[in-house]
Known about the structure:
Blueprint: E1 3-6, H1 12-16, E2 21-30, H2 36-44, H3 49-62, E3 80-81, E4 84-89, E5 93-99, E6 103-114, E7 117-128, H4 131-156
Antiparallel strand pairs: 1-2, 2-7, 3-4, 4-5, 5-6, 6-7
InterPro entries: DUF2867
Protein name: DUF2867 domain-containing protein
Amino acid sequence: MTISEITPDVDRDRWLAGADFADAFRITIDGAALDARTAAERMLGHAPWWMAALLKLRNGLVRPFGLKTSGADARRPGPMIGMFPVIDETPAQLVLGFDDKHLDFRVLVDVVALNSTSQVTATTLVQTHNALGRVYLAVITPFHRLVVKAMLRQIAAPA
């Protein structure tokens, strides 16, 4: 099981026009075909202890700045996977994300079935709004790359 960083291949204008950061990682999973919801639920449903610890640290650090610690928003109730609201969904693609005062982000989970495998791509788009957003993005980017790869590995883990 190899995870590859690839060039993002999504419609940025549709999902986050003006995005100033984009990356994408891909894994090929052997076995039964997956749909995008199943892949996203396996990725985001249960974080390993170290990711939960990083998230708790992040939430404690950003709370004084008034930044969101979850996508749960009573003004826009809707389906969520983990802490992320579902923006759009088809069997082949699930789009999650939310907007905040420092930045907006989207996570796109795309699945392509190939014979006896499924290719899952996680693409992240970010649009920063101010200096706080740019600093935040610079600080979390190294952690983001580790977290996305770990989340993709969870798709291949036994259910």
